Amino acid sequence: MPKSVAIDDIPTTVDVASNNAPPGSRSANVIAVVLLVLGVALVMPVAKLGVWMSSRDYYEHVPLMALFAFILGVYRYRQEPTTRQMVVSPRVLLWTLIASGFAVGTYVLPSRWMAAPATVATVMAALTLWGGREMTWRLRGPLVLLVACIPLPVLMDSWFVVEMQQLATWLASLWLDLMGILHLSTGVEIRTPENNFAVADACSGIHSMFAAIAVGVGYSVLRNYRVWRILALVVQMVFWVVIANAIRVFVVVYAQSRYGIDLSTGLRHDLLGMVTFATGVLMATSSDHFWRYLLPGTGISDDESPASPSEVNGSPIGFLDSAVSPRAAVIVAGVLVVFGLGGVAAFSKFSRLSLAQASMVELAQNSAIDFDTVDESFFPAEIAGWTRTNFIVNEKTEESIFGGMKSFIWQYSNGSRAVLLSVDGPYNDWHDLAMCYSGVGWQVSNRSPYPFDGNENFVAADLSLERPPLERAEVLFACLDPRGDCVAPPPHFGDAWIHLINRMRWAIGEKQSYGGGVIQVQLLDETPVKLSRGQIRDNHELFQMAVMHAFGGEKE
Description:
Low-confidence stretches: 1-21, 307-312, 348-356, 495-500
CATH topology of the largest domain: Protein Transport Mog1p, Chain A
Mean pLDDT: 78
Helix content: 40-55%
Strand content: 15-25%
Largest sheet: 9 strands, antiparallel
Structural class: alpha+beta
Number of strands: 12
């Protein structure tokens, strides 16, 4: 009898061992290795993205927010460690595919922006593999913070800042009207009889918008808000920060115009900025408490646990958390290998780009002009019937919406007409003046590239601008690399049909390294009436001859 018991026990032990061994754990190990490779591949792009974001004052807080998300995630995990075995589910494979797609795009385009969603998707895949849906639920707060670290794509951050500045300027102008202050508001400028106030200088605190959004997300995460409540608080943050910055603009202009107190610079300006920022954040949290008072029973918090596995499996999306066959995991791994080979093939294209960005001084030292020696003789006294009548040098500040370090401006006259020629820079890449002029109230009615007559390799850009009620302008501009060769406009410029696709490829990707600074030559013809074809032709002729004189080998 003891012998038969032992015999009965042996198969049972063997069966249990065979069930726990391995096809599933091997496939989980394969996916874990894939995620590890993705993480290693994203290290350099994420470092590049961090350097770029640190150079933008409205993104300086992001590295700290990412660090806080990591610390909070570790803390919440240690409160309740998981003992769950790794399981490859459709949810894991979905996140892995998303992460791989963004990671390959990071290198193929190349695009440092894509490194951000690739990193988030990789983290989601790893957490789901390690602890399933329960793990991501428990760490939802740190994950929301991590998602908030992703910058806006396709230059939307610049567009967002400009739009918010214009809105704050418009609100401040309304309040100045109510207080009887004589002024003229255009774009992000407010002009009084005595002074001109550029909102980029008098109220650069609009960049605190992104910091305020980060504060709102962090506050919501610590209070375990639901996702919809987090979004509601972010909207409130945006609203109140815009109001606070409009108050800041109003106070600066009103104090100067009524009492002669200058609040646009110095310690007073900084203190005013801190007060308005704090006011906006406090008003947003106050309005959040107000809505919680009005709607106390609408499930503000996520303190409750997620649905149990049995409840999930019975739902329409329950299959996302069920284990997949080892064959499916191998097929997905094979697809990822193909993606990976494409990423490796494009790696050299990305790795040639420098991690550190050159400073403004370094760009100026390696550009097509010497910024210390340019004077009025840079362009001749007469060009194509136009006569030089004035010359000034504009030293730019970091807050200048037009960027660069210096602007050299020449005025040329031809009879009753007068235009401005300028050389600006340096820049890292081709510089889109449409964004700059939009920031000071101009509306771009038309934009198009055009090659110089007799030199199709030199491509400039033409902008038609309007600023209601009466102002119109034509802007011609071209960019040149350190050798004096043309830097052509990107492919999307002036083409409405392929605007989105090509702009995504050009704007969110890494820019080409020119070995120095890019300078820009510009012609501005501002007039209250629409230009005739003859006047437009004269502008083109003057602009082309000026550029060719300075950079085309026609200097004496």
